[in-house]
Every structure is written in C-alpha cells, then in structure tokens.
Design brief:
InterPro entries: Diverse_substrate_MTase, Methyltransf_25, SAM-dependent_MTases_sf. With 278 residues, the protein is of the alpha/beta class. 32% of the residues lie in helices and 22% in strands. Helix 4 links the parallel strand 2 and strand 3. The longest helix has 15 residues.
Length: 278
C-alpha cells in the first residue's frame, strides 16, 4: 500500500453492507452490454467477482455466464449479496467468504474475473499473479472503475440542490480527524496507484478500455445520501464508536437543511472498465 503502516483488517467496511443498496448508485445495464460485446460472451463459461461486496457487479454480469462465484472478505457483504440475489431470483451465483490473497482456493478456472472498486485493498502483485493462473485460455480480467456513491461535481442547473459533499467531508473530519481512515489504520496518501505496471508484470497485455457515459440526472433522498456516506470505508459506521448517534444526527441535520423537499439531484458519473488479457 502507499502507506507502509496500513494493514488490511476485517473491520474495513464493518457496518457498511446494509447501506450499499440504498446509498450506492447501481452500475448501468450498458456496462453489461459493453462487456458482453467486447468479450463475445454467449452465456457459457464461469465468472469470478473478487471483492464482490454486496454483489452489485456480480448480479449485473452473472446472467451472461453459466455460473458465477462472488468472493469477499466481509461476511456481512456476502449476506447482503445473497439477499439481493434471492430478491431477483438469481440462483447461478455461489458466494464464498475469503480474501483475494487466498485464491485460487480450489475454485477452478474462469472465463472472466472481475474487480470493481476493490483491487486497491489487496496485495496486488500477489493477487494479479494468482488470478492470471485461474483464467482459461482466452480469458479476461475486467477491472471496473467507478465512483457510485457520488455524482459529478459542477454548477449546471439541476432540479434539486446537489448534496453538500464538501460540508459532509468536513463533518466526517470533525469526528474522525483530517487523515483518511481505513479499518483500524489510516491512509494519509490515499489508496495506491500503479495498477498498469503491476498487471504487466503479472503477464497481462495492455488493456482495452471501455467507457459507459451515463450523464442522466437522478434524484436522491436524504436517507440515500446518508447511506452513501456510511457505505464508504473512510466513514464506515464502526469508526465513530459511541459517537455514531451524534454524527448521524449532525449529518441528518446538515442534509435536511441543504435539501429541498427532502431531495437532492446529481448527474451520474461515467463508468470505465479496463479489459486485460494474458
């Protein structure tokens, strides 16, 4: 990691799982279409989603395959993923509780392996090497890059006010301090970069880039923005300890004051995906 003192621990997203469905904007259906077209998917093969969280990407892509496996190190995330799968009647997905560093974990081989907003939390050289060995000939690694908790910043007119993200960040900092929190540690320099070089060293060729430009304006309720805040590792509920009720009250007051009729509006961000092949 960028900060050598930071070490992963199982509290990274403690208490956040139930907030994902409410606070995170879903990946667009166009992402599945773009991936299917780029890889010539035809309903065969298996999908592995690493760091799947509550299944946001897994459930979108699973119908493109015979079967899928979602793995995550947070049990609560997998409980939420299972609930969401049952909600939509999807039975082709198996959920496994394990860290990416434990792969291949006798899971077999896969046509596609996906990562979405998760790779930066891992021992990336180790995971990249192990995942490469889990791909069938002609298989692909798909890394989805997206910010799904927050829309595009700007001053173009919207039907409702934008959420006051700067004031939200200031409020979080007033409770947790100015240095970004992550589990039991801190990330003063943020999460690491340099993914491309790690992938090349693991034996992957330069990627194909996909961009799904959304641009639509969505309305968001106060409760949705509150859940978006609690879905982040840097403001996960456990970090506030006994001050959680006070923070939640202050956050609600901030949002209710800034909203109009209890609503905000945001323009959704584009979603990008890098497709790496061996």
């Amino acid at each position: 990691m960028t900060d050598a003192a930071w070490q992963w621990d199982e509290t990274l997203y403690a208490g956040s799982a139930s907030h994902y469905s409410v606070g995170r904007m879903p990946y667009p259906p166009g992402l599945a279409d773009a991936v299917a077209t780029a890889l010539g998917l035809d309903g065969t093969g298996r999908l592995l989603d690493v760091g799947c969280g509550p299944g946001s990407l897994t459930l979108l892509l699973a119908p493109l395959f015979e079967a899928a496996v979602g793995v995550d190190a947070d049990r609560d995330m997998l409980v939420e993923a299972g609930r969401r799968a049952r909600e939509v009647g999807l039975t082709s997905v198996e959920w496994r509780h394990l860290r990416a560093e434990e792969l291949p974990a006798d899971l077999g081989t896969f046509r596609v392996v996906t990562f979405a907003q998760s790779f930066h939390w891992m021992d990336r050289p180790l995971v990249a090497g192990r995942v490469r060995g889990m791909l069938v000939p002609g298989g692909a690694w798909v890394h989805v890059h997206a910010n799904t908790h927050q829309g595009v910043t700007g001053d173009d007119p919207l039907p409702y006010p934008r959420p006051p993200w700067r004031q939200i960040d200031d409020l979080v900092a007033s409770y947790l301090g100015p240095v970004r929190r992550a589990g039991q540690g801190w990330l003063p320099a943020g999460t690491p970069g340099g993914e491309d070089e790690i992938m090349r060293q693991a034996g992957f060729a330069d990627p194909t880039q996909l961009t799904i430009d959304q641009g639509m304006v969505v309305e968001r309720r106060v409760e949705e923005v509150m859940s978006a805040v609690f879905s982040l590792s840097s403001s996960a509920p456990h970090l506030f300890g006994g001050r959680l009720p006070a923070f939640e009250s202050d956050l609600r007051q901030l949002l209710e004051t800034a909203a109009r009729d209890g609503l905000f509006a945001e323009r959704r961000r584009e979603v990008a995906a890098s497709i790496w092949r061996t």
